[in-house]
Amino acid sequence: MADNIIDLTATIKISKSPAKVFAYLSNYTNDSLWRKEINWVKLNTGTIAKETVITEESFLSRRVPNYVSTLQCTDIQNNRLITSETIPGNPFWAKNTRMVEPLPSNFTKVTYQLQFDRNIVKHGLGFNLPKFLVNFYTRSTMKKYLAVLKKNLEK
Fold first, then answer.
1. I want to staple 115 with a disulfide (CB 3.0 to 4.6 A). Which of 46, 75, 95, 132 is the partner?
2. How many domains does the chain have?
3. DSSP letters for 80-120
């Protein structure tokens, strides 16, 4: 199983306070504004909290344009960190951690860690890709998403 796990981290520096960045980043309903593949996100609570259930529909590929996954917030530390992980019953495991860290001059460092079962790639494409290609594509996509996040927050 460990051979099938993708575990990548990307960071970016944003010119906003940690509180503003965290408020935006921890609100999963904003994900469709900075993560291109997200069609929609729903929460089972009004605001995110530990144990909140997060349902998201995403575009994996033309073959799977409406993939629905259900995650649960497993950790939230105000203005610092939020983690969500798929709940049992999902066909593929995934976990993401979003961290914010204050920097001098009202800047904030955002760290985004994404871990997932790479078998989801086979599900989306209909065939396996070598792990190094999945890593390369995912890292590139994460960097693009963080650039959009920065643009959205700094406008």
1. 95
2. 1
3. TEEEEEEPTT-SS-EEEEEEEEEETTTEEEEEEEEEEETHH
Question: Which residues partner with 10 through β-bridges?
Answer: 112
Dihedral of CA atoms 59, 134, 80, 35 in degrees, nearest 10, equals: -30
Work out the burial of residue 18: count CB atoms within 10 Å of its CB; fewer than 13 is exposed, 13-18 middle, 19 or more buried: buried
Give the tens place of pLDDT for each residue, 70-95: 999 999 999 999 999 999 999 999 99
Q: Is residue 57 classed as helix, strand or coil in its secondary structure?
A: strand
* 3-class DSSP state of 124: helix
> Can you name the residues that pair with 101 across neighbouring β-strands?
109
Question: Could you list the residue range(s) of the whole structural domain that residue 54 is in?
Answer: 2-154
Q: Which pairing describes strands 53-58 and 5-14: parallel, antiparallel, or unpaired?
A: unpaired
pTM for this predicted structure: 0.94
> Average pLDDT over the chain, rounded to whole?
97
The H or E element that residue 144 is part of is helix 131-154
CATH number, position 46 = 3.30.530.20
